[in-house]
Amino acid sequence: MSTADVALAPGPDEAAALPEPGRAPGAFGRFFRSELWLIFGRRRNWAGGLVLASVPLLIAVVVKVSGSGGGDTFVFAEITHNGLFVALAALTVELPFFLPIAVSAIAGDAVAGEANLGTLRYLLVTPVDRARLVLVKLGGITLFTLAATVLIAVVGAAAGLALFGGGTFTTLSGTSLGFAAGLGRLALVCGYLTLCLTGLGAVGLFISTLTEQPIGAGITLLALTVVSQILDQLSQVAAIHPYLPTHFWLDYAEVLRDPLDVGALGPGAASALAYVAIFTAAAWARFSTADVSA
Amino acid sequence: MVRRAVRWLVPVGIAAAVVGATLVSPASAGTALPERTPQQLLTDVQGATATAVQGTVQVQADLGLPSLPDVAGGPAAHRTDLLSALSGTTTMRVWASPAGARVAVQGTLGETDVVTDGDQVWVWSAADRSVTHLTRPAGDPVTHGAGSDPRAALADLAPARLSAAILAALDPSTAVTSGPDTTVAGRPAYQLVLTPRDAGTLIGSVTIAIDAAERVPTRVTITSTRTGKAALTAGFTDVSFTAPDPAMFRFTPPAGATVTTPDQPGAQSDRPGAPTVRAVGQGWVSVLVLSGLPSAASAPSGDLTGLASWVDTLPRTSGPWGSGRVLSSNLLSALLTDDGRVLVGAVDVATLEAAAG
Q1: What is the reported pLDDT for A169?
Q2: DSSP assigned state of B201
Q3: Least CA distance to B128: which residue of chain A?
Q4: Which of A293, B84, B172, B226 is most buried by a 10 A CB count?
């Protein structure tokens, strides 16, 4: 790119986002804060959060009214014994589709959204390093996935504890843990899923640098997620399963076994980190050489 | 423009490094093990002093079986974890010491556990939150017979147990050789290769990896003559020979679980009409003939209905010996005759039919 492509006047909307020239200390922090405001200050993202939070409420109320059925999976069957399982059940239900939708919306918007609104060139007028911009966008996506999983977990746990109470936490291995240990396991599930979804978000960030259409980028990422999950079901392509971005997601259930073997989360964590590294680098390679005209 | 292309080398390089790291198997132990003859290895195994083991066992099966019944739900759902060991890859975590044993068969979002402290056996199934509890009757003479001690049986984990059974069956029908040294669970291991001399068996070879330090079998691989590839591999992917916490071998049913206490095994064998077993043929081509089995229709509970309907999907065959259904896999074949006999062997169906006649 050449700086001649870039308009020189900062727009009024983005004035707050501009870091001080000359990379003053704290500029990165201010840039990051403005990115967070961009994500968490938007009304449409609040609406999305409301959808995510409604699922645990729905599960809690339905199980309370009609009881758990005989054919329920373990996580659902445990709800009536410990309300924390509402959070786990909600995360299980939202993992294949709802959470990827949320990540797709945010990640697809990351760069393409700014390009589409015409604010990207203003961002780049200031001496903000493009690599730094990619990192700030990745940080915003990471905090969003953390917020989304924690939101589901907190709403689920609160609703579950209110309707079903706490008590002992039964593991998949049939042992009983104390309430605090159960809460710790739930936190570990949230951490693992945040990492997995951030891996997906990094792919979205890269797609977002390819286009100026945030919706197109978001839908592309969502389609990739669904295709990945379909391929993961086909035994004929078992050789590529470990490379699929969604392959290790269900490994969060390893956290529910006793004794806890954190090493079982290793492959999933390594896969997610590899996706983050590869696609953040790809986003940087694409974005740092792209002509920004809009 | 050159610089633009160079930047793309960063993500491509990371991707290549990641994929490369997953494809390159960990380098086998650099230090060569001293030579050992098959006889020495067999003696080593019998003289092994390890009494405790804990680790992860992976079972990979390519048996070529027809699809198994009832994976999703229904009365047989709680058997899913165990049945799934017959197809694909199953991961088990095992802990064993003289104080007891615990085996956790892991499924996706499920688990089946067998826990014993020697006197009591608990079977937990997460799928239906059920617990089966068995207690050894007081003064049972079985206590002194090592052979049917559940503790001893479980302490001989899948690979170890499989090897012991195979070694016991060794006779002049088998060529026993040393295979190339290998690495199991990151530990150097010897390999013992058993090759049947009988041409009629489905078993191509049995390879037993023996841990070089502890002299304990840590992996068994059985190849099929039908596919020429491994049909069954059971081995540790992670192993340690330190004693697990004995608290692992006690089990308290969780709140809300269904606990059943079935008839004691001792009482069952006294029942009239217990099945009889006899062997036809010798060595690798021998066929086991079971008769007097309870038919699926008269099974006491609904447990067998799923299995019975699955049997009904097997192909039918008939001959001078009568008629029945056949189950053929890459390692074993079975013939279920209409007159209530079951013939099983590591042979093809024609050999079974000959034995039925």
Answers
A1: 94
A2: B
A3: A74
A4: B84
Tokens read off for A55? 């699922």
How confident is residue B172, by pLDDT bands cut at 50, 70 and 90?
Answer: low
Considering only alpha carbons, which residue of chain A is nearest residue B250?
A: A175
> CA A170: distance to chain centroid?
27
The answer to whether A257 touches B104, Cβ cutoff 8 Å, is yes
Task: Find tokens 């960990």 and name the residue.
Answer: B26
Residue A227's contacts (CB-CB under 8 Å, 6 or more residues apart) are none
Q: Is B27 helix (H, G, I), strand (E, B) or coil?
A: coil
Rounded CA separation A89/A75 (Å): 6
Given a contact cutoff of 8 angstroms between Cβ atoms, the answer to whether B335 and B356 are in contact is yes
Q: What is the C-alpha separation between A92 and A73, in angstroms, rounded?
A: 11
Q: How far apart are CA B234 and CA B221, in angstroms?
A: 7
All residues at 6 or more sequence positions from B279 whose CB lies less than 8 Å from its CB, including other chains: B286, B287, B288, B289
Q: What is the pLDDT of residue B144?
A: 40
CA nearest to B111, candidates A100, A174, A259, A137 = A174
Q: Are A88 and A169 in contact (CB under 8 A)?
A: no
Residues B338 and B353 sit within 8 Å (Cβ to Cβ): no
Burial class (CB in 10 A: 0-12, 13-18, 19+), B38: middle
Residue of A nearest to B78 (CA): A71
Give chain B positions within 8 Å (CB) of A266. none
Contact B126 A242 (CB under 8 A): no
Paired sense of beta strands B287-291 and B100-107, if any? unpaired
The series of mean pLDDT values per 10 residues for chain A, 294 residues long, is 40 44 66 88 91 95 81 84 94 95 94 84 74 92 96 97 92 93 96 97 96 93 96 89 94 92 93 96 88 63
Q: What is the pLDDT of residues B312-331, one digit of tens each?
A: 788 888 888 888 888 888 88
Residue type, A127: P
pLDDT at B149 over 70: no
Residue count of chain B = 357
Structure tokens at A139: 């940080």
Instruction: Determine, for residues A289 and B7 on separate chains, whether the beta-carbon distance falls below 8 Å.
Output: yes
Question: What token pair was written down for A243?
Answer: 């490379």
A31 closest CA partner among A41, A17, A11, A10: A17
Q: What is the pLDDT of residue B160?
A: 54
Whole-angstrom distance, CA of residue A31 vs CA of residue B134: 64
Distance from CA of B348 to the nearest CA of A (A): 27
Cβ atoms A229, A96 nearer than 8 A: yes
The predicted-structure confidence for B222-257, as pLDDT tens digits, reads as follows 999 988 889 999 999 999 999 999 999 999 999 888
Question: Going from the N-terminus, what domains does chain B have, and what CATH number goes with each?
Answer: 38-260 (2.50.20.10), 272-356 (no CATH)
The shares of helix, strand and coil residues in chain A, as percent rounded to the nearest 5, are 70, 0, 25
What three-state secondary structure class fits A189? helix
**Is the distance from CB of B254 to CB of A174 less than 8 angstroms?**
yes
Q: How far apart are the C-alpha atoms of B148 and A220, rounded to whole Å? A: 60
State pLDDT tens for residues B193-206: 989 888 889 999 99
ipTM > 0.85 (yes/no):
no
| Pair of tokens at residue B231 | 């049909």
DSSP characters for A84-147? HHHHHHHHHHHTTTHHHHHHHHHHHHTTHHHHHHT-HHHHHHSS--HHHHHHHHHHHHHHHHHH
